[in-house]
Write a structure and sequence with these properties.
The complex is a heterodimer. Helix content of chain A is 34%, strand content 21%. Chain A is an alpha+beta fold. In chain A, strands 15-12-14-13-18-20-16 form a seven-stranded antiparallel β-sheet, with helices on both faces. Chain A has a five-stranded antiparallel β-sheet with strand order 5-6-10-8-9. Chain A has a four-stranded mixed β-sheet with strand order 1-2-4-3. In chain A, α8 packs across α10. Chain B has two domains: 152 residues, Uridine Diphospho-n-acetylenolpyruvylglucosamine Reductase, domain 3 (2-Layer Sandwich), CATH 3.30.465.10; 93 residues, no CATH class. Helix content of chain B is 21%, strand content 24%. In chain B, the strands form four sheets. A seven-stranded antiparallel β-sheet of chain B has the order 13-10-12-11-15-16-14. Chain B has a five-stranded antiparallel β-sheet with strand order 3-4-8-6-7. A two-stranded parallel sheet of chain B has the order 1-2. In chain B, β3 and β4 form a beta hairpin. The chains are: A alpha+beta, B alpha+beta. Chains A and B meet through β9, α7, α8, α10 and α16 of A and β7, α5, β9, α6 and α7 of B. Chain B: InterPro entries: FAD-bd_PCMH, FAD-bd_PCMH-like_sf, FAD-bd_PCMH_sub2, FAD-linked_Oxase-like_C, Oxid_FAD_bind_N. Chain B: GO terms for molecular function: catalytic activity; FAD binding. Chain B: Keywords: FAD, Flavoprotein.
Chain lengths: 473, 298
C-alpha cells in the first residue's frame, strides 16, 4: 500500500538506508516494553535534511511516523502502530561541539548517554541524567522521555539539562527551540518538547548542559532488618536538609538476586539496603556523611559500609545497576513498573505493593530511587505458566492505582507511551487532558507524529482492545 | 478565596487581566482585573515541596520555608504567580537553577473559566505533556495561575559574597565548585559561595584578591538581556553580567532579545489561538515582544 512512499524514501536515503525486510520490520516494531506494533518501512537518516525529507514524504502520503533512538523505552513510546514509518536516529551519533568553559555541548540525537559522559570526562564534566540503560540509550531518547536516573535526585531530570533543540516539526519544517542563552524570548517550547514522547516532532540536534564533576564522592551502604526502617531513613535524611547525589533502595529478594550475580558482599539477611552517595567539597561532604550515618542508626541501620576506594564504590553501584540482569536467575520474565509517590508515603505504598503481589501469587522485587519516591516494583514470573499474564496485568494495574491514590503520579521516568495511556484519566480530568491535547494540536494538527500515544482518545477510553497485545492496561 | 471563586472571577467571556503585587509590570490596561488566591496551603519539609496560592508573596513563602531550613529558586519580591508568569530568575541562577525548574504542579484558570491541572505533585513526574513548562514565562497569556506546588531546596549552612578585581571571572567559573552566583562588570568580579563554613572559607581563599562584601552589586536597570554565555567576554558599556548563565543587566535601554524564527512565531500563534481563541487573557500582551525589565503582569 505504501509502494510510492517507499520509493520516495529510497530516493532520499538510497536503498541501503530504507529497510523493508520482514525480519527488520519485526525488530523495529517494538521497543524494550512487552508491546509490539507494526511498521511498513524503517528509515535511517544521517542528517537533519534527510529527517526532514522523510517526514515530508510521510506527511504527503498521510502516513504516521515514529522517531526512534536505541529502542530502550519501557512504555511502548517508540512502538509503531498500523504500519507507521519508523525514523531511526541511530546513525546520527556525532558529538558536534563541546564548550568546556560554559559547560555545554551540541550533540546529535543518536549519541549514547554514557558515551557523552565518557567523551567529556577528560574535561571534568559529565551529562547528569543517568538512566539505568545509560550504556545503550540515546540522548534523543532521553529528550523524548525526559529520562531520570539515580543521580537526578540532586541535579534534576533531563529537562534541567537541555538548553536547546533543533527539531523537525510535524509539518516538515526545521527550527531551534530554546537557545544557548538562558531566557529565550517567548514560551518555553524547549521545555514542553522535552518529554513529549515524539508527538511534537523529531529532535535532530541537542544542546545539553554539562555538569562539573564533584571534587569528592562518598558512597555508603546501610542495611536494615525491615523495609520500613529503610524507608523512614530516606524521609529523615531529606527532612534533615540533606540532598544526597543519589539515594537508592533494594529489598531482600533483590539483594539476594544481585549478590548472586555480582558478589559485592551485600548482606543476604537484610530486609532492605540503602545506597547513599554524597558529593561535594570535603568538609561539607564529611558532615553530610556523618549525619546520614547518624540518621541511619537512629532508624535501625544494622551496619554501615563506606566504600573505601573507587573499586569498591563501583562494585556497590554495579550491584544497583545490574539488578535487572540478575533477575533472570529467579524467573525468565519480568515486568518493571515505574510510579512516584510522595516520599513520606513510601512505607505505606511498599506494604501495599507486597500485599498486591502476594494476592496475585507473584514475586515482587523492589529496586528504586527512594530519594525522590520513584518506585520500581519488578514483578518476576514465567509467562509459560497458564494465567500468569492476567495476574501480572492486574497486579500492575493495582500498583499504579495505589500510587496515584496517595497523591503519586503514573510515571517518574519511563513515560506514558502506550503502556499507561488509558490510565491518564486516573491522574487528569477531561479539562486537564484537553489542555494537553491542545498543545499537541498546536504542534501537529494532522496528528501524524507518533499518534495514539500518551493521550487517551475519548473513543478509546475503557477500550482495552485498542492497545496491542502485551500491554498490561 | 479558593480556586473555584477565582475561576468564577475570571469568567469565560470578557477581556480579563491578572495582577499580583504589581512589581513586574502590573495588569494590562482595558481589561477587568482579577487577583489569584493567596496563602500557603500545605508545606511538608520532608517532601521538599510547598503548595500555595499564586497570589502569595514570594517573601512570605521564603520566610515560612526558612523556618524549616529550606528555600526555593524564585526571585524575592512580588507574588509567586508573578515570578512564575515572568519566568525570570535572580542572580543566584548559576547555583540554584532557573525558575522554570521550580514548578511541579499548577492549577490554572483557562480562557473558558475552567480550572486545569498541569503536572504532578511529586518531585519527579513524566506523566503526559509538561504544561507547567508552557506556563512559566507565558505572562498569563494561556491561563492564570491559581494554585501551585513548588520544589524547595535545603538552605545552605553559609552563604557569603566576595568581590575581587584581581581574578578572571571565566577562570573562576572553571575553578570554583558550584558557586551560587558569579557576576562581572568588566572590572570587578562578585562571587557568592554557599555550603559548609570551612568549604566556603577555603574556596574564597582560592580567589585572588577576594574581600568579603555584603551582597551583589546594584544591577543596572536599563535592560535585562539574555545572551549566549560565550558572548559575555565582548560586552561593552555599563553592565553586570551573570557569568556561566548569560543574563546581562545593562545600563542601556536597548534590549536585545533572541531572534525568533518564523516557525517558532507560528507555533506561538497556534498555541495562543488554541488556548485562548478569543484573546481575552491579558489582551494586548505579546510574549514575543516582552523585553527588558518590564513584564505584563505580576
Amino acid at each position: 500500500m505504501n509502494g510510492t512512499l517507499i520509493r520516495e524514501l529510497r530516493g532520499v536515503l538510497g536503498a541501503d538506508r530504507v529497510l523493508t525486510g520482514a525480519t527488520e520490520l519485526v525488530l523495529y516494531a517494538r521497543d524494550a516494553s512487552n508491546i509490539s506494533g507494526s511498521t511498513s518501512v524503517v528509515c535511517l537518516p544521517t542528517s537533519t535534511a534527510e529527517v526532514q525529507e522523510c517526514v515530508r514524504a510521510a506527511v504527503r502520503h498521510g502516513v504516521p511516523f515514529v522517531a526512534r533512538g536505541s529502542g530502550t523505552g519501557l512504555a511502548g513510546g517508540a512502538v509503531p502502530l498500523d504500519g507507521a514509518v519508523v525514523i531511526a536516529l541511530t546513525k546520527m551519533n556525532q558529538v558536534l561541539s563541546v564548550d568546556v568553559e560554559n559547560r555545554m555541548a551540541w550533540v546529535e540525537p543518536g549519541v549514547l548517554n554514557l558515551d557523552l559522559t565518557r567523551f567529556t570526562a577528560p574535561e571534568g564534566l559529565h551529562f547528569a541524567p543517568d538512566p539505568s540503560s545509560q550504556q545503550s540509550c540515546s540522548i534523543g531518547g532521553n529528550v523524548a522521555n525526559n529520562s531520570g536516573g539515580p543521580h537526578c535526585l540532586a541535579d534534576g531530570v533531563t529537562n534541567s539539562h537541555i538548553l536547546a533543540l533543533e527539531v523537525v516539526l510535524p509539518d516538515g519544517s526545521v527550527t531551534v527551540l530554546g537557545g544557548e542563552d538562558p531566557e529565550p524570548t517567548g514560551y518555553d517550547l524547549r521545555g514542553v518538547f522535552v518529554g513529549s514522547e515524539g508527538m511534537l516532532g523529531i529532535t535532530t540536534k541537542v544542546c545539553v548542559r554539562l555538569t562539573q564533576n564533584p571534587p569528592a564522592v562518598r558512597t555508603l551502604l546501610m542495611d536494615f532488618s525491615s523495609v520500613d526502617d529503610g524507608a523512614n531513613t530516606v524521609s529523615a535524611i531529606i527532612a534533615g536538609g540533606i540532598l544526597p547525589a543519589a539515594l537508592e533502595m533494594m529489598d531482600r529478594l533483590c539483594i539476594q538476586a544481585v549478590e548472586a550475580f555480582v558478589h559485592a558482599g551485600l548482606p543476604l539477611d537484610a530486609a532492605a539496603v540503602l545506597l547513599v552517595e554524597v558529593t561535594g567539597l570535603p568538609v561539607g561532604l564529611d558532615a553530610d556523611v556523618r549525619r546520614v550515618i547518624e540518621i541511619g542508626r537512629e532508624h535501625g541501620a544494622r551496619s554501615v559500609r563506606v566504600a573505601q576506594d573507587e573499586a569498591e564504590r563501583l562494585l556497590l553501584w554495579k550491584g544497583r545497576k545490574s539488578a535487572f540482569g540478575a533477575i533472570a536467575r529467579i524467573k525468565p520474565n519480568y515486568y518493571l513498573h515505574d510510579t512516584v509517590v510522595p516520599r513520606r508515603r513510601l512505607t505505606e505504598v511498599l506494604a501495599k505493593v507486597y500485599e498486591i503481589a502476594e494476592r496475585h501469587e507473584l514475586l515482587v522485587l523492589n529496586v528504586f530511587h527512594a530519594g525522590d519516591g520513584n518506585l520500581h516494583p519488578l514483578l518476576v514470573f514465567d509467562r509459560r505458566e497458564p494465567g500468569t499474564m492476567e495476574r501480572v496485568h492486574r497486579a500492575g494495574e493495582e500498583i499504579v492505582a495505589v500510587s496515584v491514590a496517595v497523591g503519586g503520579v503514573l510515571s517518574g521516568e519511563h513515560g506514558i507511551g502506550l503502556e499507561k495511556r488509558d490510565y491518564m484519566s486516573l491522574m487528569f480530568g477531561p479539562d486537564d487532558l484537553e489542555a494537553q491535547a491542545l498543545l499537541r494540536r498546536a504542534f501537529d494538527p494532522l496528528a501524524l507524529a507518533n499518534p495514539m500515544k500518551v493521550l487517551p482518545s475519548p473513543a478509546s477510553c475503557g477500550d482495552v482492545h485498542s492497545v496491542p497485545e502485551g500491554a498490561w492496561i | 478565596m479558593d480556586l473555584t471563586a477565582f475561576a468564577e472571577s475570571v469568567g469565560a467571556s470578557d477581556p480579563v487581566t491578572v495582577s499580583g503585587a504589581g512589581t513586574r509590570g502590573g495588569p494590562m490596561p482595558d481589561a477587568r482585573c482579577v487577583a489569584a488566591p493567596s496563602g500557603i496551603v500545605e508545606f511538608e519539609p520532608a517532601e521538599m515541596t510547598v503548595r500555595c496560592g499564586a497570589g502569595t508573596t514570594v517573601n512570605e513563602l521564603l520566610s515560612t520555608l526558612a523556618e524549616a531550613g529550606q528555600s526555593l529558586a524564585l526571585p524575592a519580591g512580588g507574588t509567586v504567580g508573578g515570578a512564575l508568569a515572568c519566568g525570570r530568575s535572580d542572580v543566584y541562577r548559576l547555583g540554584r537553577g532557573p525558575v522554570r525548574d521550580t514548578l511541579l504542579q499548577a492549577r490554572y484558570v483557562g480562557a473558558q473559566g475552567q480550572v486545569v491541572k498541569a503536572g504532578g505533585q511529586t518531585v519527579k513526574n513524566v506523566s503526559g505533556f509538561d504544561l507547567c513548562r508552557l506556563l512559566v514565562g507565558s505572562f498569563g497569556t494561556l491561563g492564570f495561575l491559581g494554585e501551585v506546588i513548588l520544589r524547595t531546596r535545603p538552605r545552605p549552612a553559609v552563604s557569603r559574597w566576595f568581590a575581587t578585581t584581581d581574578a578572571d571571572p571565566f577562570a573562576l567559573l572553571g575553578s570554583l565548585y558550584r558557586p551560587a552566583s558569579l557576576l562581572w562588570d568588566g572590572e570587578t568580579t562578585w562571587v557568592c559561595l554557599e555550603g559548609h563554613a570551612e568549604d566556603v572559607e577555603a574556596q574564597a581563599g582560592s580567589v585572588s584578591g577576594a574581600r568579603e562584601v555584603h551582597g551583589p552589586p546594584t544591577l543596572p536597570v536599563g535592560s535585562r538581556r539574555s545572551v549566549a554565555p560565550t558572548s559575555l567576554r565582548s560586552l561593552t558599556g555599563t553592565f553586570v553580567a551573570e557569568i556561566g548563565v548569560g543574563v546581562v543587566h545593562h545600563g542601556e535601554p536597548t534590549p536585545t532579545g533572541t531572534a525568533v524564527s518564523t516557525e517558532v512565531r507560528l507555533l506561538h500563534g497556534q498555541i495562543k489561538g488554541l488556548f485562548d481563541p478569543t484573546g481575552r487573557l491579558n489582551p494586548g500582551l505579546d510574549v514575543l515582544d516582552v523585553l527588558g525589565t518590564t513584564g505584563g503582569m505580576s
